[in-house]
Design brief:
Layout (H helix, E strand, L loop, with lengths): L9 E2 L36 H12 L8 E3 H22 L7 H13 L1 H7 L5 H8 L4 H10 L19 E7 L7 E7 L8 H4 L3 H20 L5 H18 L3 H4 L2 H4 L2 E3 H7 L5 H7 L7 E4 L2 H13 L2 H15 L6 H16 L7 H25 L2 H24 L5 H12 L2 E5 L17 H17 L21 E3 L4 E5 L14 H6 L1 H11 L20 H19 L15 H21 L13 H12 L2 E3 L1 H10 L16 H7 L19
Parallel strand pairs: 4-6, 7-9
Antiparallel strand pairs: 1-8, 2-10, 3-4, 5-6, 8-9
Helix pairs in contact: 2-3, 2-17, 3-17, 5-15, 6-13, 8-9, 8-16, 9-14, 9-15, 18-19, 18-22, 18-24, 22-24
């Protein structure tokens, strides 16, 4: 599974780059509230999500090729189709050899050449299998593990499954010294989403593990490994031991627990077992003298396993993961087997997505800003960029006013918070400078090799940051991504072009609705700079406690109150939302919605908002927010999200409204209704 850095990237978690549903299920763009999708039989104070979306939920079927479906998917579907058309145009163009457009076209068409991929069979993996077979001792194992280290950390905290290597690397601004980049190392190596999938004794998890064991055996058979069932059992046993060493998701999200600076010499004493010098040399990490080890106990445990588990088991483990990791660019038998577990078992989908959707996603992964440059040229006019920038400015001003008006915060803390807000770097639509892909070689007809080279290119690009000045303009999302992100250590935000479109952002409807939808997104990302993780960093991005003890105590009390609020939600019997795991996102939802509401009210300049579609301005604002989180999920995917994701499931995010006084007045919510909170229990973080 891709490892996440919640302190480096805090995103909204809107689905992006997903499969397109059948055309009949793609509705025409609507401009305004979806009245037909509401359920007026439900009182807003009892279930605001169902009131705003209940009829849509009853009518909508999740497409067979996915585990969830909602408004984010609708926007992503449209974006995918547009992106696919741009990529196909690049493929059909006469673009010069070596140009970005030619690389985009060649990458996509090579992936879409199923006959060519089938004809090659597993031969592209032959060098990898030979390298694994050549492992004769522990030094060889360290050399192989180092050579396969990649910058495969999921900075967006996404929930998609992707098998990776034993450790992951990310190069980012050092938390103690914001003037330099540091190499961060994180735990990895699991084929299941996270440690609880191996350790949870429940019958449901046991069934998943049984199916995973069968999947590992099937993949080893495809790789030509004899006695696959027995050897698969050893692989899963190894991963189970890895899982026991792993830090929990909650601990991994704790910045203070993760900021551990180790010298090169520390590794052999704090994490004995792996030949670290061989590992670093093979990973081209001879230069750094200090690393940030995010989960130190996991490194101790995982390193020990490299010295105690048999080399034969390690070789089988590496064989399975090599095959799984490249399954998308291998023959159909491998693709189908991978889907049978990761698609059906873990997501609940009954059929795979259309191949072109994977082609779009993988091309965007490899050449994201080259694709994005074409996307914004065609679909993101300067007028929309300017309109979005104006809204960002309004919401920042509203957030500043909220800080200034806080009665509980000391003047010195307020001054530091405002200083941080003042230097916030906000990127709208696309980056200031486009990424340079001249060093990335793309070869027509070589889907496997292109994937390998793109991965190495990204790793090398990250290594080149070491020793260079910090670039606060760098984006971690592509313009064609339907999402948004806050980078706390960079004190920067990214709002990609693709999320700045209907129904989130729509020039054909009243602005109040935009404030409720994209305005809440903007407020959410701004608020991340001041949530339980973001608030630990000062204006320069340094890990620095800028709170007075009294202010911090008040903030933590509000956070604890919000944890209890979300802990009480129970999507399935015995399975509650984890208020601690989702705290950062829930704080951002509360504060973001409140600041967006303030900005909307300020935009009226004292005038009343007009009644539209039978609703007052405040009602339009809150309904637009609730409808922006419209989504249905299959049970396997929803359970996975609750266990592994730092975001509260979409159906529960509109419950944030119960913390805003204005919502009660807008919908006449009274004591005794399910969502009613007494004023003292309404969380006001900022």
């Amino acid at each position: 599974m891709r490892r996440s850095l919640p302190f480096l990237a805090l995103c909204l978690a809107i689905p992006a780059l997903v499969a397109a549903p059948p055309k009949a299920s793609v509705s025409a763009p609507r401009h305004g509230l979806d009245l037909a999708g509401m359920d007026p039989a439900i009182a807003p104070g009892d279930d605001f999500f169902a009131y705003a979306n209940g009829t849509w939920v009853k009518r909508t079927e999740i497409p067979a090729d996915r585990g969830s479906y909602g408004v984010g998917h609708e926007v992503a579907d449209l974006t995918d189709r547009r992106t696919a058309a741009l990529i196909k145009a690049a493929a059909a163009s006469k673009a010069s050899a070596g140009s970005d457009l030619r690389k985009v076209g060649d990458y996509y068409t090579s992936f879409m050449d199923e006959k060519g991929i089938e004809a090659k069979g597993l031969s592209p993996l032959k060098p990898t299998f030979q390298a694994i077979a050549a492992i004769r001792d522990r030094k060889d194992l360290a050399r192989y593990l180092g050579a396969t280290l990649r910058a495969d950390v999921d900075v967006l905290n996404a929930t998609r499954i992707e098998t990776t290597n034993l450790f992951g690397l990310w190069v980012a601004q050092d938390l103690d010294d914001p003037t330099r980049y540091a190499p961060f190392l994180l735990q990895g190596g699991l084929g299941l989403p996270e440690r609880s999938y191996y350790l949870d004794p429940s019958a449901g998890m046991a069934a998943v593990r049984t199916q995973y064991l069968a999947h590992v055996a099937a993949m080893l058979k495809l790789a030509g490994v004899p006695n696959a069932e027995t050897r698969a059992s050893s692989v899963v046993d190894l991963e189970t031991r890895m899982a026991k060493a792993h830090a929990s998701r909650e601990d991994s999200g704790d910045v203070l627990k993760g900021n551990n600076h180790w010298t090169r010499a520390d590794f052999s004493t704090k994490a004995p077992g792996l030949d670290w010098e061989t590992y670093f040399a093979s990973a081209h990490l001879k230069q750094p003298a200090v690393f940030v080890v995010w989960q130190p106990a996991a490194f101790t445990g995982l390193s020990a396993l490299t010295a105690t588990v048999s080399l034969d088991t390690w070789k089988d483990y590496l064989t399975f993961h090599a095959l799984q990791h490249r399954s998308r660019v291998l023959p159909k038998a491998v693709v189908d087997q991978s889907f049978s577990f990761y698609g059906k078992v873990l997501s609940g989908a009954s059929k795979p997505r259309e191949r072109w959707t994977y082609g779009v996603a993988l091309t965007s992964d490899a050449l994201g800003e080259a694709v994005g440059k074409a996307y914004v040229s065609r679909y993101f006019p300067p007028t929309e960029k300017a309109r979005a920038q104006a809204m960002v400015a309004d919401i920042i001003a509203a957030f500043r006013a909220r800080i200034e008006q806080l009665e509980w915060m000391a003047p010195e803390t307020k001054a530091k918070a405002i200083a941080k807000l003042t230097v916030l770097k906000v990127g709208v639509g696309y980056p200031d400078r486009w990424r340079d892909y001249r060093r990335l070689q793309i070869v027509a007809g070589d889907a496997f090799g292109n994937a390998e080279r793109a991965e190495r290119f990204e790793y090398t690009r990250n290594l080149r940051k070491l020793g260079r000045p910090i670039d606060r303009t760098e984006w971690v999302m592509t313009p064609q991504t339907v999402n948004a992100v806050n980078l706390p250590v960079m004190n920067a935000l990214n709002f990609p072009a693709a999320i700045l479109q209907p129904p989130y952002f729509d020039p054909k409807r009243p602005m109040v609705m935009d404030y409720g939808a994209i305005g809440a997104v903007i407020g959410h990302e701004i608020s991340h700079s001041f949530d339980d993780s973001g608030s630990l960093f000062d204006a320069t991005g340094k890990l620095n406690n800028w709170w007075t003890p009294e202010d911090l105590k008040h903030f933590q009390a509000s956070a604890d109150q919000l944890v209890k609020q979300f802990d009480a939600y129970q999507p399935f019997p015995g399975l509650h939302i984890n208020g601690k795991l989702t705290l950062s996102e829930n704080i951002a939802d509360v504060a973001g919605l409140a600041s967006a509401y303030d900005a909307y009210r300020l935009s009226l300049h004292g005038r009343p908002a007009p009644v539209v579609q039978g609703f007052t301005g405040d009602q339009q604002f809150f309904l637009s927010y609730a409808q922006s989180w419209r989504e249905k999920s299959r049970e396997p995917l929803l359970r996975r999200q609750i266990l592994t994701d730092g975001h509260t499931p979409a159906a529960y995010r509109p419950t944030t409204v119960r913390n805003l006084d204005a919502w009660y007045e807008a919908f006449q919510v009274k004591p005794g209704q399910t969502l009613y909170l007494t004023p003292s229990n309404r969380v006001k973080v900022w």
